[in-house]
Amino acid sequence: MPEKELVQIVDSNNTEIGLTTRQEMRAKRLPHRATYILVFNSNGEIFIQKRTKNKDIYPGYYDIASGGVVLGGESYEMSASRELHEELGIKDTPLVPHFDIYHEDGNNIVWVVFFPVSMTARLAFRRKRWKRAFFIISQKFLNYLNKNHLLRMVWLP
Predict the structure, then answer these.
(1) Of 3, 18, 21, 135, whose CA is between 20 and 30 Å from 79?
(2) Which residue has the higher pLDDT, 3 or 57?
């Protein structure tokens, strides 16, 4: 069960300081690590997913990234590889970190590493993780989602 997963907790310098459950990490708003995978198709369009209402953070939002929290004992690369397989059925794809950021809002304190991926193969959409998904290139639509607080992230490289 995801709420029982052990998550890597870090300090303000992204130094590992311990492990706790995902449930406690969310309840206490503890700083942690996450991976965000930006998936592009051969036309340069980015993959957008609508999060299900049962997500523990940002439920019902549109999301420009696949990915999730880094579990105890995982590197960012291991986490990104696991998440890409769990969420989109993609495995054995080279993942190269593109950039990292620190993000803090009312719900979350997180160190994030972004991994861009170009896909030509068909994605295995996981219905229990996402309500709907599609590729999009329209900056106007991304701006609309952001303006209306429907987009979780707008950190495009």
Answers:
(1) 135
(2) 57
Share of the chain above pLDDT 70, in %: 74
Beta carbons of 38 and 116 less than 8 angstroms apart: yes
Closest CA to 14 of 109, 95, 108: 109
Tell me how many domains the chain contains. Answer: 1
Whether residue 157 is contained in a domain is answered as: no
pLDDT for 127: 53
pTM: 0.77
Residue 29 lies inside a defined structural domain of this protein: yes
pLDDT at residue number 155: 38
CATH number for the domain including 40?
3.90.79.10
Phi and psi at 27, nearest 5°, equal -60, -40
Q: State the pLDDT at residue 153.
A: 52
Give domain status of residue 153, yes or no: no
Q: Domain range holding 109? A: 2-147
Alpha-carbon separation of residue 87 from 5, 52, 80 (angstroms) = 17, 13, 10
Residues 6+ apart with CB under 8 A from 35: 67, 68, 70, 76, 79, 80, 83, 112, 113, 114, 115
